[in-house]
Amino acid sequence: MTITVLGLGPMGRAMTRVFLTNGHRVTVWNRTASKAAELTEAGARLAGAPAEAVAASELVVLSLTDYQVMYDILGTAGEALSGRVIVNLTSDTPQRSREAADWLAERGASLIAGGVMVPEAVVGTEHSFIYFSGPEADFRAHEPTLRLLGTPDYLGTDPALAQLFYQAQMHMFLTALSAYLHSTALVGAAGITAGEFLPHAQRFADTFSSFLGEGARNIEAGTHPGELANAIMMGATAEHIEHTCEQSGVDTALAGVVRAQYRRLIDSGNGTQSWTGIYELIKG
Fold first, then answer.
1. Distance of CA 270 to CAs 180, 255, 274, Å?
2. Cα–Cα nearest to 60, from 28, 35, 92, 33
3. Which residues, in sequence order, are bridge partners of residue 113?
4. pLDDT tens per residue across span 57-109
């Protein structure tokens, strides 16, 4: 199999190494050609221009900053795009994926959008998984190759779905990381080090997933019974957290957002609902 990889940041280099290790011929291109040195030593071929790189392979994998960079690069490829399957593993919005699919179709290429859900060090291992969406025939044709990067989770023909799931997961991830940093700063104000707090944070984080099942059941049912922990109770906790941050001299922005969500639910007359009632307020 001959594969082209455009974009040789940490993720692009990691994917190229996986392809090479598995015996594929890989053509690479990057604006800063020096980033390809390690890969060419390992057997990759460095193209002199995007058009040359795209022409080298039916399967073209992108690992770029955003979709605009894709336009900047592939816009110079001209007729080389015709007949190519572009697998864009670049982060952007779902709508941008749909627009990119139309743009590529006008040039005779098809788009498989993707979202890599692990850091570059994990790519190619059993712990790696990647969301994909786009034309099913193209995905299935190249699934064995893409599987080398991680377990593929094909979501359907709409090219927006991979980015939708990716952004939803990353939203949960980034928010959780911010909460961890915030909590570490909170105990740090009392002289407790990050290392001392770590095992407590890890133990509590492991319980988080147990709440998700209740959330999904309530959301799908459209009801939010609050017999065990209603919004009034949890809202009081949110208020206590915000006040603790104030008294500790720690930034209150994140705690204030959470408290405001519970306050909205209570003020709407639904304080006896479960915490999942907040979903009805934020879904838009």
1. 29, 21, 9
2. 28
3. 88, 133
4. 999 999 999 999 999 999 999 999 999 999 999 999 999 999 999 999 999 99
Residues 137-185: pLDDT tens digits?
Answer: 999 999 999 999 999 999 999 999 999 999 999 999 999 999 999 999 9
Closest CA to 134 of 91, 178, 167, 104: 104
Q: For the purposes of burial, counting CB atoms within 10 Å of the CB of 116, is it exposed (0-12), middle (13-18) or buried (19 or more)?
A: buried
85's enclosing H/E stretch is: strand 85-88
Query: What SS3 class is residue 130?
Result: strand
The whole-angstrom distance between residue 52's C-alpha and the CA centroid of its chain comes to 30
pTM above 0.70, yes or no: yes
Instruction: Please give the Cα distance from 146 to 154 (Å, whole number).
Output: 11
Which are the contacts of 1, defined by CB distance < 8 A and separation ≥ 6? 24, 25, 59, 145
DSSP assignment string, 187-224: HHTTT--HHHHHHHHHHHHTTGGGGHHHHHHHHHHT--
User: Per-residue pLDDT for 229 more than 90?
Assistant: no
Q: Which two tokens stand for residue 13?
A: 């280099």
